[in-house]
């Protein structure tokens, strides 16, 4: 009986962790569509856009870059303004979303 309860608790924990992770990806997709995609696109920017594509980039690199833009330790008038509105959760979600996309 005790083993069944423990197994059930472990399975519930795994399902909960997976759904939180999925929610983060969906939140990242929504934020990317609303904030990032106008310049960077989702998979590729428009042909004449001077902005780099973000799909498939390393998530840790994207997190670091966005935090630097937000904190203004990395300079770009456009990115400092845009990243200034992002929370840590937004940054993590967007980085996870773009990092999982195939270019």
How large is the count of helical segments? 4
Sheet with the most strands, sense and barrel status: none
Order of SSEs: HHHH
Please report the total strand number as a whole number: 0
Q: Nearest-angstrom radius of gyration?
A: 17 Å
Task: Provide the residue-averaged pLDDT.
Answer: 83
> What gross morphology would you assign?
globular
| Estimated share of beta-strand residues | under 5%
Find the structural class using helix and strand composition.
Answer: mainly alpha
- Taking pLDDT < 50 over at least 5 consecutive residues as the criterion, the unreliable ranges are 3-19
The percent range for helix content is 55-70%
Distance between the termini: 49 Å
What would you note in describing this structure?
- The protein has 103 residues and is mostly helical.
- Helices cover 69% and strands 0% of the residues.
- The protein has helices at 2-40, 59-70, 77-83, 88-100.
- The longest helix is centred in the N-terminal third of the chain and has 39 residues, at 2-40.
- The relative contact order is 0.17.
- Residues 3-19 have low confidence and may be disordered.
Features:
mainly alpha; 4 helices; 0% strand; disordered N terminus
In a nutshell, what does this entry contain?
The protein is mainly alpha-helical and 103 residues long.
Topology overview:
Layout: H1 2-40, H2 59-70, H3 77-83, H4 88-100
Helix pairs in contact: 1-4, 2-3, 2-4
């Amino acid at each position: 009986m005790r083993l069944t309860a423990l197994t059930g608790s472990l399975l519930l924990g795994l399902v909960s962790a997976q759904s939180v992770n999925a929610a983060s990806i969906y939140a990242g997709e929504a934020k990317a569509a609303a904030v990032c995609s106008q310049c960077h696109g989702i998979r590729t920017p428009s042909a004449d856009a001077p902005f780099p594509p973000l799909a498939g980039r390393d998530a840790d690199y994207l997190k670091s870059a966005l935090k630097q833009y937000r904190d203004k330790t990395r300079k770009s008038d456009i990115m400092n303004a845009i990243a200034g509105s992002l929370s840590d959760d937004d940054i993590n979600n967007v980085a996870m979303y773009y990092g999982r996309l195939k270019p």
